[in-house]
Design goal:
Distance between the termini: 53 Å
Number of strands: 0
Radius of gyration: 25 Å
Number of helices: 10
Strand content: under 5%
Number of domains: 1
Structural class: mainly alpha
Length: 299
């Protein structure tokens, strides 16, 4: 009976060494994860702050100035409408600083970490778009930048929606910042993409007031509305997104009205109605499904 006991005592130091080794590896892995997450969060801050810097550099060095209003293109809102970029940049920086707080960085992959790369890409592309715009608003390179921005926003929205339970535990300020920056930024840029399509098309010499001119611009507005509906669906009815799209389309409506293009003006009104109608339907459906899902979980 003493032999097993001796064997047991002999194995104890080996077990302790193995446990310490495993613990050391676990701590190293945890430290590496925290470092990686911290680096991503800092990257978001750097690119967010880079946006106003890019804007200043554009103002100082660009050989061209950005034009707006009906006198430039019927589908481009009045100049005052672009003041929304100020809000977007300020909220971008506020969100970037909030998500980089040390207390939110852990070795566990959170939604803040999962959207860090998409949001960093969006902020970086802001500067790239201005670089393309400095070569002229009709430069098609800007369209490629917008495609990347829209794709990054779609990825971020999907990850945010699937993490709604986690986000619900955040403080109200941080929840509000995330909702606002995603909604306003994706809303404005998803519409700006189509406005630039119109600008590029017009730059090729396409007419804007003939029957064909009204037709191709109407198709651009229909496509913009379709993308907006898709984003409302992906975001599960983001009010900030729908409000920003409505803001953009109202601006376009003002320009088309000033240009006397009534069919396009009416299309803008229909677009706003369709977007908000979709939002209401999605929110009603989600409200009805949630109690059902809770009942199933409880059962």
């Amino acid at each position: 009976m003493t032999i097993p006991a001796a064997s047991h005592r002999a194995s104890t130091p080996q077990s302790s060494t193995a446990e310490r080794s495993n613990l050391s590896r676990s701590n190293l892995s945890s430290s590496t994860s925290v470092g990686r997450h911290r680096a991503l969060r800092i990257l978001v801050v750097v690119f967010a702050i880079g946006q106003p810097i890019s804007s200043l550099v554009f103002d100082w060095l660009s050989p061209t100035t950005l034009q707006s209003g009906a006198e430039f293109s019927p589908l481009v809102p009045p100049g005052a409408w672009f003041a929304i970029w100020g809000l977007i940049i300020m909220v971008s920086i506020a969100w970037a600083l909030a998500q980089a707080r040390p207390s939110t960085i852990t070795d566990t992959l959170s939604v803040r970490d999962r959207i860090a790369i998409p949001m960093a890409i969006v902020y970086l592309c802001f500067g790239l778009w201005l670089a393309a715009a400095s070569l002229g608003q009709e430069n098609p390179a800007g369209l490629a930048v917008f495609v990347v921005i829209i794709g990054a926003h779609a990825v971020a929205w999907r990850r945010v929606v699937t993490a709604r339970d986690e986000i619900a535990t955040w403080n109200p300020v941080e929840r509000g910042l995330l909702t606002l920056i995603l909604g306003v930024y994706s809303g404005w840029t998803s519409m700006a993409f189509f406005l630039q399509i119109a600008t590029v098309t017009q730059g090729t010499g396409a007419e804007t007031e003939s029957t064909w001119g009204i037709t191709w611009q109407l198709l651009v507005l229909v496509a913009a509305t379709g993308v907006a509906v898709a984003f409302v669906f992906v975001s599960r009815g983001s009010i900030a997104y729908a409000a920003t799209v409505a803001y953009a389309l109202i601006g376009v409506g003002i320009s088309t009205g000033e240009a006397g293009l009534i069919p396009l003006w009416v299309t803008c009104i229909i677009g706003v109605s369709v977007v908000w109608g979709t939002l209401v339907v999605i929110r009603i459906v989600d409200a009805r499904l949630t109690p059902s899902l809770l009942t199933q979980v409880g059962a």
